[in-house]
Design a protein that fits this description.
CATH architecture: Alpha-Beta Barrel
Radius of gyration: 21 Å
Number of strands: 11
Shape: globular
CATH class: Alpha Beta
CATH topology: TIM Barrel
Order of helices and strands: HEEEHEEHHEHEHEHEHEHEH
CATH superfamily: Phosphatidylinositol (PI) phosphodiesterase
Number of helices: 10
Structural class: alpha/beta
Number of domains: 1
Largest sheet: 9 strands, mixed
Distance between the termini: 38 Å
Amino acid sequence: MKKTLSLFLVLMLVLGCMLPAFAASETLSVYSSYIIPTDSVRMTAHRGYSAVAPENTLPSFKKAGEYGFWGAECDTSVTADGVWVIMHDDSVDRTTDGEGRIGDLTFDEIRSLTIDAGNNVEQYPNTKVPTLTEYLDVCKEFGMHPVIEIKECAGVENMESLARLLSSREEKDMFTIISFGWDICARIKELLPDTPVYILIGGAAEDNFPNTVQFAVENKLDGIDFAYVWGRDMVKLAEKSGLKTMVWTLDDIESAERYYRWGVRDITTNSLTPTKPEGNIFQQILWALRDFLNSLPQRIENLFKAA
């Protein structure tokens, strides 16, 4: 009896510590079966919601909006006649019925092509390569944050035209820019100092990571967008240097939970989906309890830091 009473008191204590944070969160996000408060994490759809529609197309961006993503990530480069378009690769070969490098084709030539690859492409006949402006319009329609990857093939010499385009938008305060190109990151940050800019890093060259951090700090960049293979020590080094962190591309529950425990609150995904929870208040309390227990190591670490 005493043991049961003790367990009950411990549970009530944990719930008492957890419920204020739970009550402040109006909705919850679902990573498949895993629940965390939406005010704790920002989920971004990678190339739009590319699990259900062809990547980097207006249908994929609209699906991201319909499914409730915080942000929609895109890849952008510039055509031979100076139009910013949405495409991941340097060429149109993989995802359209045409061929050629983006920088060698005019916008009219690219617009004449049809998207012929990607998830459920047959459901979206005659889909065209969108412009950056069209992508921004969809994000604005759904209230999503544009997360814009500038492809290295775009060239640092074209950053002025991109800055002009973005500066002309009334929702410009919502943008986040990412790029693997260090010179591109530095230049666009110089042109758009109030826009968050993150360096993208892939899965190699850990020994060069301190140089990446140093470059980001020296050029007043906002953070680092990690590939999912990077470890906790690298995340903590970035945060210790005053940089924010994002992670891509998380498509399984275990990885999402791991980075969440490490304190990363910006997650880019192909297939995990944010939705509102269903069920009664007791189910929601149990979900929130799991979130609290998962975050407990980070909470304790923060307490020691503050002490």
